[in-house]
């Protein structure tokens, strides 16, 4: 088995993600705005209720929000745009004809697209929200450093798994798109699920206590929530091992089931166009 | 000898026809429409679930009861849904009219460009946001302790003023496209970001943000002050309550300024050619 075709697919989508520099700046401004509004809301909520024992301190909630904002484009919001177009025009047949494993082919393109979008934005926002905010005297509002060296190393490993997991979930949206021949459904389903279940809307540890175990156990928590918890050093029941274990479990399960679903879909795929 | 046209439609009649055609077109695919409207409803309802979870954990949002916050949330979402329904033509203006040069065709027609762009599409999808905003608004009025009877007059005025303000933002965004050609996503800070900021009480924010959403974008005038007036809730910052009965007019003033800017921008339009 040769890796080259998959690396090519990866490289192509990675470059597409990096091409839109103005979009990166625009995204940065939008993320700073949403971050600022959310942070001010949390700050006044925490200050008004000083004796409530929250699972996250205010500083941790702020850091959580910054990391979450900077990784927004890493979330599985919908299918890969190129596959959406291919499904609409019927160009999807070309993918079927390629002598490559289609799951890996699409997965490498998807992963590159997510990383190409997310990595520049994350680095930029981390610089603005971290050191720069410290310099201009907004230290209390800034991105806190990781809990310790071990947390830093483990969260790096965990976010790598998170990116893979996100790409695997996008693969499910891709198959849904190939099945329904339109990308709209995947966005209608994917965006609300990803925004709520990944902790983008509200940090998962802040939800009511009875629902928190379920929120931790579902696959979307593995994308950004578990890496951020490891980074902050906030307790996960069973420690970082549980977190990484959950990520690996979902990665394996979603890949196996996804491959089955893909085979079934490809076998009875009807293609639009001539 | 050329005959003068027997009958020209009034502006309202013309708009009604364009809107009717647009509605028929959207209902051609009832399944897609239903999925999108439901997706819209669920996405926006989840937004309120996040706020509700904060209430569950902290008891109040910085001393504000859930009724007041629900009224704010409902007001801003209903107003934005109305603007989104009417202003789709301005939202897609850069990509669909300026870049392609098809704005030239609109200029040849003996009608106001604003009217023609309003008629681009009467979008039905925001009905999801509208319904859930109205639902939260009514629930908030039911929960809040001191609802005034005058709310029956002030809240519709506030919704109209808010819709005018968001429509003004969309028109301003379209006017900006004459310079930038493609639409800039930064403007989303004022639309989606405005909705995000409008759903929290004004006092939660830092001074720079308070000033921005009071004097630059009159968001507080169409949302926060009318809500205080309707609920007979004194303003912690000391602004007299009666202001809220008149302040929604600022939304119309904002729309007026944006229309002036639009006419300026159209006068200086240079086609990109086709």
TrEMBL record, chain A:
Keyword Disulfide bond: no
Protein keywords: Membrane, Transmembrane, Transmembrane helix
Transmembrane segments annotated in the record for this chain: 20-43, 63-83, 122-144, 150-175, 187-207, 244-262
Transmembrane recorded as keyword: yes
Tree of life domain: Bacteria
Annotated InterPro entries: ABC-2_transporter-like
PANTHER family: INTEGRAL MEMBRANE PROTEIN, SLR1174 PROTEIN-RELATED
Protein name: ABC transporter permease
Organism of this sequence: Gluconobacter kondonii
